[in-house]
Amino acid sequence: MIDKQRMFLFSQLFPREKAEQKYESFYRRKWRLLILMGAACIVVILLLCISREEKRNLSEEGTLQRKEWNEGSYEVILQGNGIYGKERMVLTVTERRLTQEELEALKTEAVQRLTSEILNGNGSLKRVTHRLLLPGYLDGLPFQISWKSSNAQIINSRGEITAEEIPEDGLSVSLYASLSYEESSFTEEIPLWVYPERMTEEEAYRKELQELLLKTDRENPEEKEIWLPEEMDGQPICWQEELDKTIFIVIPFLVMGMILLSFSLDRQLYEKERKREKEIRRAYPQFVSKLQLLIGAGMTPRAAFIRIGREYERKRREGGKRQYLYEEVVLAGFAFQNGKAETEVYRSFGRRCRERECSRLSFILAANLRQGNEKLLSLLAEEAETVLLEQRYRARKYGEEAGTKLLFPMLIMLLVVMFLILLPAMGSFKKG
């Protein structure tokens, strides 16, 4: 059934188009959106129902399932129906505690993993040459681990080798790992041998050179200058200072900044050009009307150009805004006053404006110089009407483009709302 009031509204909104088509198009679009939104609502409701069932913790038998020892505790909101009615209660269900048999099985795994994970690059526990990595826990196991050394002068409880001199045949020492879980704990002894670290020739040379530099600094602390050693073990040494390399980091950013600045300036120029084109198109109908009025009053097109240009200059001196179209009119007036041919001035005006409407006007003016003002006035009237139609079309086009640009932000908002609704459901799926 057609709504006559709506039909009348469409006939007012689109007087040059068929109201029935606009009416049908509007309602087709409206029902498509409503069906799409209804489908989305149904999907969301189904997902929320599924999520609600997945999150249910209380079984029909009245039991709550504990999580395993590594999964943590959770809260559940319960309603107890008693003699005083419904009572809302919050219960924190703790994770399941391991049995003694399970602990014994995990102890063996923990000891096996400890003997391999503490090596930190050492070949084996029978030959330790640098620091051990002593963890406070093991991934996937419930134990908290603390460490103690049988001889802190050889290796401390952090796994650092503290002995200053280690003989070639090594030193024997033990580390004690205390593993605890709840009230249960046990200690495991890990014997190991500490040996001096073997360095390559390059590492030994570097260490000796470092010691030589330190010795040079300590020899004459009261001197104002330090003379760096020129040789070591009979081999000459050439020293160079390593300067700050910040400049090499900054240069690429400076080059990138220059490139971005160049693009930015080009873009600004392009935007100014677009702004000029739009401004000329907006000012053109008013200019044609003025030109038509002055020529109808008996002026020649040449005099009308000069008159409009002088009026614009007067407004500029009074603080008026600059307008690109009238700037070109002023230049055309100067050309007339300098004695330039009218045909060439009109064509130059059309080329400088770089707009189709101005080129069309320049052609009309140049082609009708010898035909008199009557023919020219009718052509200017047609031009004014054509410009008004083009302006209406352009305004409608801009409105459609603005509506299209708003679709993406609205879609983003819809996705955000759906994400906020579905977030609890996705969290429950992961936990399940």
TrEMBL record:
Residues 120-195 form the Atrophied bacterial Ig domain. It holds the Pfam family aBig_2. The chain crosses the membrane at residues 31-48, 246-265, 406-426. The keyword Methyltransferase does not apply. Keywords: Membrane, Transmembrane, Transmembrane helix. The keyword DNA damage does not apply. It comes from the Bacteria. This is Atrophied bacterial Ig domain-containing protein.
